[in-house]
Write a structure and sequence with these properties.
The chain has about 575 residues and is mainly beta.
Amino acid sequence: MKKTLFLLACLLMWATCASAQSSYRLGYCPDELPADAQAYGVSGATNRLSAAICLPKSKMLRYKGGSVKAIRFAVKAEGLSSASVWLRSNLNERSRVVQSVGTMADGWNEVELTRPLEIDGNDLYVGYTVAQAEGAKGILSAGTGTEYTSFIATDNQWQDMHRFGVDALLIQAVVEANVPTRDVTVVSLDAADLQPAENALISWNVTIENLGQPTAERIKVSYLLDNAEVSADQVSDLATEETRALSFSKTFATLTPGAHELAAAVSFEGDADENTANDTLRRAFFVYAESYPRNVLLEHFTSIPCVNCPETDKLLEEVVPTRQDIIWTAHHVGYRDDEFTLEAARPLTAFGVIGNPEVMFDRTVVGSSTTAAFALTPGDVDALKRFVAEAAAHPAFAKLSVEATAADGTISVGVEGEAADFFSALHPATRLCLYVVEDGCTASYGQAGNPTKFTHDNIVRAIPTTLQGQTISWDDTHFSQAFNISLDEAWNVNNLRLVAFLCDAPAAGSGLPTGAVLNAAQTSLTPAAAIAAPTQISTASSATYDLQGRRVVTPRQGIYIVGGKKVAL
């Protein structure tokens, strides 16, 4: 009898705990379908189209131990079929839960999961996949977009569409969980990765959120440098799910070169936080005393049918040759194909290329642009100079050198790199990319808008490493890599350059393309039968480069590379 009563008591206790769980809709969009929701699709037919949002760890810690019971998504159903919903820890990994939808309706569709997912408190991607008929636009968005809200993929090639102005996708996870009564978290901590050793201005940008049930009062936010508190803020009256942005700055006269740690921590004054796992965010930053000379990689998007491209060519010709720290490459993708289009370069359009002419510096955002690639205003020399200066201002903590020779139909390339002691900690997954670039290419037809222009420079002819590069095997702070590349009969060996650059690996699961370029180098190809002694030659007929492969607009007396040959000027 006692045993029976004990079991009944346990069951009653379980039922009480279960009933205490509450249901939440997690997402970034309105619960109701807005009248002004925007619809998206892809041009032409596609096999599969996917959409997703990210619920980051800072948000999911609140619901740890609960479960995702259902997924909601809103679409325009016409032209969409074969839908499935899924949950992933990473966009580029297999789904942890996947379930077919069946018939879709216009507006919201709620799919109850036959196998709910237990929430572990880490990042969670919530999405759906459909087959799209040609011309259909069924993915809906509304509300305010952020870096978590708008991922779209064709055939599982993901892009962060927030960078292109897409609002939050209409996707939600339905969660059941016991939410702590008192729980404040640090949602984000932003600060510069690098600082000079002297007069370093350290700035924290911090966002906190009340994940508990009542309004939170008497919150302390502490700012720490290398575990020592340097300042604090007092925050009160933070409602449930309300966020608060805070900032703090301090100048330090001298910091030791190397790695340091910033931290932001929240606590209640006089009361305990029920979930301390999300109270502190930490991030490393690095202090430097010296850096390497930097070359900026300019990737120019152009094409022969582009009527506006000649004007941008003139703008770049006016600015780029005045500096020796810019390596100019050109991709004939973005607006209609031509005879110089390289299919291997086409994924670069994920950086924001929507047409031609456009440019990109070191694959990073410059100026007021929201994407790395952006259009230039013809004739705006001052703006271009500002963009170049901004890109060149980033310090480099690794350098490259390139050597290349051609013989028997093969280009032999050697690339060597050297890095600062803390480089691998700052950039733990760097990759090496290699371009074969040709100048003085004669097109078989005239340039749109300028029919007399038949010669095109800086054309990327081959990408031996692929756009995302290949992993580097560092020997402490050095590496050496060799390549053998077959010469294409269409290339003029005397006009070839080899461009090498280091870049960050793409962020895992983020839907982003290849990461930022960290430094670059180039060299002109040296044919095996090159002229041993310099030859006097006029520079009027071809571009001029120094012996390091850098273009020179006004050469002084000395030895240069002109038309692939060493010459004396």
